[in-house]
Amino acid sequence: MIVAFSVSPLGVGEDVGEYVADAVRVVRESGLPNRTDAMFTSIEGEWDEVMDVVKRAVAAVEARAGRVSLVLKADIRPGVTDGLTSKVETVERYLAD
């Protein structure tokens, strides 16, 4: 499965990059395939391991902010691996035509 999620503190002002970095650090240290862009961090793996990482990423932000917003989208497709790469490669292939 691939999960794209965004975690952000609320009530800490406009500059949230330092808090978001705490969450992304948890994801990167997980060892699961992941990628971060301007809006979301995507992570790929089995349900329990991915959701555990998301939970720990939220906890990392929550440790410094009393309120946290979480947006999560999941692509649950058993048997598919390397979806983070292959889905993008498919789109790029169509764009090249």
From TrEMBL:
- What residues does the Thiamine-binding protein domain cover? 3-92
Q: Which domain of life is it from?
A: Bacteria
One Pfam family of this chain: Thiamine_BP
Q: Which SUPFAM superfamilies match?
A: MTH1187/YkoF-like (SSF89957)
The family line of this record is: Belongs to the UPF0045 family.
Q: What is this protein called?
A: MTH1187 family thiamine-binding protein
What organism, scientifically named, is this protein from?
A: Streptomyces yanii
Lineage of the native species? Bacteria, Bacillati, Actinomycetota, Actinomycetes, Kitasatosporales
